[in-house]
Amino acid sequence: MAIGPYEKVAVDVDGEGIAVVTLNNPENRNCITPQLSKDMNQALDAIQRDRSVRVVILTGAGDESFCAGMSLKHFIEYRDKGWELYTPGESMMDWWAKLRTIPQPTIAAVNGYCIGGGFCALDSCDMAVASERAIFSLSEINFGSIPGGGAMRAALDMMSMKNAMHLIMTGRPIDAQEAWRTGLVNKVVPHERLMDEAMELARTLVPHPWQALEWCKRTAYGSKAIQDRFLGIEYETAMSIFMTRARPPRGGDAQAGLKAFVDKKYKPGIESYDFRKPSG
After folding, report:
1. Binning pLDDT at 50, 70 and 90, where does residue 246 land?
2. How much is the pTM?
3. Residue-number span of the structural domain to which 222 is assigned
């Protein structure tokens, strides 16, 4: 099954409901153009509406680049025209926000260069797997500017302050292993195994109830945004109660999983209860 077609984005959905969304501008290292942003916004709108899509994997076309940031040609054009070319709902900031807020879990499969605005796409995904060939860089200082549009904030959100500042102030790239060590990705794998590993991770999520995955995502980002630790815990508790009581099917899923555990039909923490095949 396919969603689209689009000019600069490809979307393919397999029989398990795993959607692979590919930034398809390889001749320019999958840099962000107005057309790519328009296509990404439309694709993510379609995915959000489609409950048959269970997990989303974001990657880049080709073997060289995940996303090389915003097209400098278009950046200069926007700057010189006072951002008159910005269309609400079609910008790069819009699709970054949609990646963060769509109900489906999102996984970045970083297949090569992740530069500038590529950090925003990476940060907007819930998890990330990187090829051993991946390179990460905030290069704006090299041409006398600063990371903007969210790239600096993305690094600060994903990394410790000192690790982020090293990228921001030196402009020097880091490799995949350093990206893993500093918190940018969950795992580094051989290049030829990247999509297999991303798909394997996605398949571990598919058996879980889509309602629970959506609420885990919503609650995690909401809790992180609350500075006071105890208020964050109260928020998590309130969301858990609301999920169970306000929407009965969600609570029913949890009850089925708990009953299966009591009946010793699976081991939480070691195994997953498959909600697609509830036991009697």
Report:
1. low
2. 0.89
3. 210-262
